[in-house]
Amino acid sequence: MKNLVQLGFAALLSLTTMTAKAQNTNTNNENSLLWEVSGNGLSKPSYITGTFHILCSKDFEIKPKVWNALNKSESFVMEINYTDQNEMASIQKMMTADKKISEQLTSEEAKNLDKILADYGTNLKNVDSQSSTSLYSLVATKAIPCPQNEVKMYEIELLKTALKNKKSVNGLEKVDDQTHAISQAYDLKETISQLKLGNEYAVAAKKMTEAFKSENLKELDQLIKNPKFMDKRQEKLVLTDRNKKWVEKMPEMMKNQSSFFAVGSGHLWGENGLINLLKAKGYTVKPVTSL
């Protein structure tokens, strides 16, 4: 159960950041998940790639242009720095709560949740001491249609190469930042509502995977406008607010070193996406079709 939750936590931001309602306002040519950032005083270009945090091995592929961009960069930057042991400890801490889930529900609500959890291969007794954020992470496990030993984490594969090539590694935020955003966006009752949509997440994730593999951002844009998974308030908490914080940190990182940023794909586009926010700061941001 512990490993399942850890996998779910790693995957849930892929889903939440790829199911937000957003307007496609960047450029006419967005058929790329890799973008180059230049100008505005940068001596070398940096790169941003959109990721799908967890994929089954059969669907997993990192395109040559992404590897080339990483190799050209001096620093590798993820949402969270997985090499920081303090951050890994924070993930463990995030999973538990002071108040049991059952104590926050009526007896009828607890019974209903127990029935819902059966569809996830567990029950309320097993998860009762976990946080609502940890419980919410189970939603993402529906999007992984293969055994745990057949999955690959996109950022981890990039990280392995970055470490092998002795690149510096950084994070845009802390685990606590992510946890706070998710817990504010999805309280316990909203989390239970999302758990009821498990099969719909599975269907959506399959379509997203295919669109991601083909870098079909037009199709992704249509998929992310599904209002079932994220409303405007949740979009602001999970995407917009975090993007605005990140874009304040990125200039210094890019100024000091040519940086390669790997973030959930949903953070790239839209009025409040990283591409537009960086353009607003005076950078030239363009899609990379080959490198």
How much helix is in the residues?
40-55%
Amount of beta strand: 5-15%
Poorly predicted ranges (pLDDT <50, ≥5 residues)? 1-9, 13-28
Gyration radius (Cα, Å) is 19 Å
Placed side by side, the strands forming the largest sheet appear as 6-4-7-2-1-8
Question: Structural class, please?
Answer: alpha/beta
Q: How many strand segments?
A: 8
**Number of helical elements:** 13
- Mean pLDDT over all positions: 84
Shape: globular
Q: How many structural domains can be distinguished in the coordinates?
A: 1
Order of helices and strands: HEEEHEHHHHEHEHHHHHEHE
The quaternary organization reads as: single chain
Q: How would you characterize this protein structure?
A:
This protein has 291 residues and is an alpha/beta fold. The protein has one domain. It contains 13 helices and eight strands. The chain has helices at residues 2-17, 64-72, 85-94, 107-118, 124-127, 132-141, 154-164, 175-185, 188-195, 198-213, 217-223, 232-256, 274-280; strands at residues 34-38, 46-51, 54-56, 75-78, 151-153, 168-171, 259-264, 284-287. Strands 6-4-7-2-1-8 form a six-stranded mixed sheet, with helices on both faces. The protein has a two-stranded antiparallel sheet with strand order 3-5. A hairpin with a 7-residue loop joins strand 1 and strand 2 (46-51). Helix 6 packs parallel to helix 9 (188-195) and helix 8 packs antiparallel against helix 12. The radius of gyration is 19 Å and the shape is globular. The N and C termini lie far apart (41 Å). Mean pLDDT is 84; it is low at 1-9 and 13-28. It holds the Pfam family TraB_PrgY_gumN. Its main location: membrane. Residues 1-22 form the signal peptide. InterPro entries: TIKI1/2-like, TraB/PrgY/GumN_fam. It is found in: Membrane.
